[in-house]
């Protein structure tokens, strides 16, 4: 039972502010996708690219974030990230076509690539490793205000103003965040080695081309030959990087990271686990609006119980993991999330709308403990000299898997819904039913990986909340 110094707590609050910005933007965008599609004259089946463009850009740019933070300081990088993210929000609001919106989301992604991971790296630098899980819980809890406000605020703005305001709302938040960063955050630096530019381009090319190829010919509108070319470039790039990193101490991500059993299993589990989890924030508001006919504001309100469940679980997640162990928690939460996803679909199709908030509350609780456990399991046994590299690789894998998840969700909707998906379609419920059944299988599969997690050898430290009587 320990307390962190007051100055460290202030620094953690600044990191939480960055989490707030990104979380607010993500949840607002998810709720507004059907309205965006109607405004831009696009099919809802194509709107997943608005999310994929952002998270894929984050994944591609992440490998440079850790090196930049060490080289020029976490404060400088964090400030630049907020500025780029805010500028991207302005361009999103001014976009008049889907392509223009996607390009603006790419700029946002460049900022996002430095914001949250550099914040997470800052936490690793300022707190002892035994307190890392509790400190990250402390940081992400204030950031939950973003998801709490996002769905309802986004729905209200879309319904009573226009979807452009979901991006304009980021402007004052970004200005406040930039000022707070310059004023309060120390500029931590570390000695750096030469940046592996070759490895960076190889990984970037591999991730981008394979994720885009996953969208298929219908999504990209390209020929079979071009699609095969994308796959070939992606596979060759990844294999080339593995050859490049072999016995290379200057590689972007050393292959020695994978000698750590806990890190290797945690990274694989995080990738496959977040593919399934990444589908849900995209699918839920789309299903509520197109499948059930909810208004944007009503759909946004329905997302709040999920956030409340997540917030409530974060207060006890450390105790739960200490009591049950990582393996049991991860296997149970993975299978539980698949079952709750099916329950959500069943309750909705039966018309029991009053039960939906309770189901979404449970989904938020399960997702929260799953994410916290996956993140800390992966990093907890890394030595200090590998912490920065391991954290950057984990952050990249997290974003890449969410990008893949959203892409697969869009692919499933397109496969079962063919070319059109509208609220008045006679088969709309059937399309979503088949999609959710497929998603449940994908969500449950990572339990096979988590079942191999070894027994815990240490306990996580619980941070005691400061009493009101204390100075």
Provide a compact summary of the structure:
The chain has 471 residues and is mostly helical. Helix content is 77%, strand content 0%.
SSE order and pairing:
Layout: H1 6-40, H2 48-72, H3 74-94, H4 98-126, H5 132-143, H6 145-160, H7 165-168, H8 170-184, H9 197-214, H10 216-220, H11 224-245, H12 261-291, H13 296-314, H14 317-324, H15 326-349, H16 356-379, H17 384-417, H18 428-444, H19 447-450
Question: How would you describe what is shown here?
Answer:
Helix content is 77%, strand content 0%. It contains 19 helices and no strands. Helix 3 packs antiparallel against helix 8.
Poorly predicted runs are: 465-471
Strand segment count: 0
Give the CA-based shape: globular
Query: H/E element string?
Result: HHHHHHHHHHHHHHHHHHH
Q: How is the main sheet built?
A: none
**How many helix segments?**
19
Mean pLDDT: 81
Decide which structural class fits the backbone: mainly alpha
Into which percentage range does the β-strand content fall?
under 5%
Estimate the helix proportion, in percent: over 70%
N-to-C CA distance: 18 Å
Query: What is the C-alpha radius of gyration, as a whole number of Å?
Result: 21 Å
Top keywords for this entry?
471 residues, mainly alpha, 19 helices, globular, disordered C terminus, transport, Multi-R_MdtD, Putative multidrug resistance protein MdtD
């Amino acid at each position: 039972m320990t307390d962190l110094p007051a100055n460290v707590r202030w620094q953690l609050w600044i990191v939480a502010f960055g989490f707030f910005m990104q979380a607010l933007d993500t949840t607002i965008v998810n709720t507004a996708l059907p309205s965006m599609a109607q405004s831009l004259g696009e099919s809802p089946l194509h709107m997943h690219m608005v999310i994929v463009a952002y998270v894929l850009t984050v994944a591609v740019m992440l490998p440079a974030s850790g090196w930049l933070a060490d080289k020029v300081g976490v404060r400088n990088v964090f400030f630049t990230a907020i500025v780029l993210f805010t500028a991207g929000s302005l361009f999103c609001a001014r976009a008049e076509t889907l392509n223009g919106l996607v390009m603006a989301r790419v700029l946002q992604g460049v900022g996002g690539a430095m914001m949250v991971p550099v914040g997470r790296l800052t936490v690793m630098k300022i707190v002892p490793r035994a307190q890392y899980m509790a400190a990250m819980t402390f940081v992400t809890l204030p950031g939950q205000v973003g998801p709490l406000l996002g769905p309802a605020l986004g729905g209200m703005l879309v319904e009573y103003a226009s979807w452009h305001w979901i991006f304009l709302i980021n402007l004052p938040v970004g200005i406040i965040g930039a000022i707070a960063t310059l004023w309060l955050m120390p500029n931590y630096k570390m000695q750096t080695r030469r940046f592996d530019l070759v490895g960076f381009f190889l990984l970037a090319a591999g991730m981008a081309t394979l994720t885009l190829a996953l969208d298929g010919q219908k999504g990209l509108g390209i020929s079979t030959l071009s699609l095969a070319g994308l796959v070939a470039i992606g596979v060759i790039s990844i294999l080339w990087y593995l050859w490049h990193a072999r016995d290379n101490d200057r590689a972007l991500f050393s292959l020695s990271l994978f000698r750590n059993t806990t890190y290797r299993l945690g990274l694989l589990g995080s990738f496959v686990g977040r593919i399934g989890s990444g589908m849900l924030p995209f699918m839920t508001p789309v299903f509520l609006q197109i499948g059930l006919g909810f208004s944007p504001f009503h759909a946004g309100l329905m997302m709040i119980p999920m956030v409340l469940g997540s917030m409530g679980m974060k207060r006890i997640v450390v105790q739960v993991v200490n009591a049950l162990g990582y393996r049991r928690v991860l296997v149970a939460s993975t299978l539980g999330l698949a079952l709750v996803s099916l329950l959500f679909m069943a309750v909705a199709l039966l018309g029991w709308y009053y039960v939906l908030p309770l189901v979404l509350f449970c989904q938020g609780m399960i997702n929260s403990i799953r994410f916290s456990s996956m993140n800390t399991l992966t990093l907890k046994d890394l030595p200090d000299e590998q912490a920065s590299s391991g954290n950057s690789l984990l952050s990249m894998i997290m974003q890449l898997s969410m990008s893949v998840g959203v892409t697969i969700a869009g692919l499933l909707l397109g496969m079962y819904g063919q070319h059109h998906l509208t609220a008045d379609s006679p088969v709309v419920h059937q399309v979503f039913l088949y999609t959710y059944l497929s998603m449940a299988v994908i969500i449950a599969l990572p339990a096979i990986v988590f079942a191999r997690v070894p027994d815990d050898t240490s306990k996580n430290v619980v941070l005691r909340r400061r009493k009101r009587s204390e100075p």
